[in-house]
Amino acid sequence: MTKSDKRAYQSQIRQRRADETRLQIADAARELFLANGYEGTTIDAIAAKAGVASQTVYAVFHSKKGILAEIIERARFGPTYQELVRQALDTAEPAERLRLAARIARQIYDSEQSEAALLRGAGVVAPELAKLGQEREARRFKAQRSTVKLLLESGKLRVDLKEGKARDILWALTGREIYHMLVVERGWNSNEYESWLADLLTTSLLKRK
After folding, report:
1. Residue 85 exposed, middle or buried by CB count within 10 Å (0-12, 13-18, 19+)
2. Is the dihedral of CA 43, 44, 49, 50 positive or negative?
3. Fewest 10 Å CB contacts: which of 50, 120, 121, 150?
4. Structural domain that includes position 86
5. Phi, then psi, of 124 in degrees rounded to 5
6. How confident is the model over 46-55, as pLDDT tens digits?
7. End residue of a domain, out of 12, 40, 62
8. Nearest to residue 102, comparing CAs of 179, 44, 26?
9. Does the residue 167 lie in any domain?
10. For residues 145-167, b (16+ Cβ closer than 10 Å) or e, as one string?
11. Contact assessment for residue 68 and residue 119, using Cβ atoms and an 8 Å cutoff
């Protein structure tokens, strides 16, 4: 094995260990939040539960809020989400791509809603959860660029829509506010939301046949 190969191998080992440590800390924090409440859980307690030093927790997450962000992130973007994104990126048919966008939105918000309910029960205040959600919006908008680009390049985007306006529409319609109003407040089930959103996206963004 060359020196370069050894360095690459050692780097992979360090990264795997770092990922394992990150997971241990997040799992320990989640368990303690649910058992003792958010305010009742300290960094020292999380470190002890995870079997690491308190300094390690601070080095990895910087704060308790940072750990909370990780827990929500894992709920939103787990294996099911990753598979749906893979399917979407492999799909060149515009209408199917939009239907997958609706399914991805449903997956994210279903997972987020379930985890947020648990954490609110643990005493995590709503403003903290809301702020974490807001911090994701810019990246969500950026990630949707490829979908609008596909619509444009395929010639299926409505002729009266520019790329920027189409991105705004896609971003707005797949936002969590609409999900919250329909599913949480009005009692729609997730299947109804996904089906309605898929139909709305296709009629709002694609040329009529």
Report:
1. middle
2. positive
3. 121
4. 73-205
5. -75, 120
6. 999 999 999 9
7. 62
8. 179
9. yes
10. eebbebbeeeebbbeebeeeebb
11. yes
